[in-house]
Amino acid sequence: MSAEEIDAVVVVTTSGFVTPSLAVAVALDLNLNPEAAQVPLVGYGCAGGVLGLARAAELVNAGYRNVLLVNVELCTLNALHGDDTKSNVVAIALFSDGASAAVISRDGPGPRVLHHHNTLLHDTENIMGWNTTDDGLQVIFDVAVPDVVLAHLPGSLERAFQTFGVTPDEIQHFLPHPGGVKVLNAINEVIAPHQVAPESWETLRTKGNMSSVSVMAVLHDAIENGKHGLSLLTAMGPGFNIGHLLVKL
């Protein structure tokens, strides 16, 4: 596929903010068609892998032919030296840098995006995000995140399955964003007797939490490992947002 065939570029990031946007930078660097739409998505956090894919799929459904989706997270830029708060120490240990790219088209040999669903929880804005300080962006990473997953993921999944018209037993692979060991354990508890796919655990073990990039890495590895059938991508991030994407591998 040539650069001329890309008619929209979506760039997802949370680890920084620039103007002109990263979507503009990608379009110029790749010499895309000057009429290609540029869609910068900032602030989704870890949910950005699923929600970015959903927004790209919406563009295709709206008539765009080939949408380039780029996720880029430079989490280590935001490690605050001298900040010994628990949130900062955990963030330094857990979060890592990463980038991914995919083209979403109406036709092609890759996975099919079937449906998506999003749940925004009220009164949870302070669980994850950034504080702007004189020294930079200070991470907000509340210890209550696994508890929020246990409390709200069941209802979000139930509504998503109703929207999708499928049952949990029809899902062959649960591919959640690997937000951390406690988060994956909480997801396992919610989806039991089903289990989180090994690709999520392996991505966490080998790459850490790359924010919006991680679920793209999980999806890539599932494809490389020969996974087939209905699969559910789930990711959670600031807001508190819970996103689900039903795909057929």
UniProtKB/TrEMBL annotation:
Gene Ontology molecular-function annotations: acyltransferase activity, transferring groups other than amino-acyl groups
Any one of the GO BP annotations: polyketide biosynthetic process
InterPro entries cross-referenced by the UniProt entry: ACP_syn_III_C (IPR013747), Chalcone/stilbene_synt_N (IPR001099), Polyketide_synthase_type-III (IPR011141), Thiolase-like (IPR016039)
PANTHER family given in the database record: 1,3,6,8-TETRAHYDROXYNAPHTHALENE SYNTHASE, HYDROXYMETHYLGLUTARYL-COA SYNTHASE
Name of the featured protein: Chalcone synthase
Gene3D superfamilies: 3.40.47.10
A Pfam family this chain is assigned to: ACP_syn_III_C
Keyword hit for Transferase: yes
SUPFAM superfamilies: Thiolase-like
Residue ranges of every copy of the Beta-ketoacyl-[acyl-carrier-protein] synthase III C-terminal domain listed in the record: 164-248
Organism this protein belongs to: Deinococcus cavernae
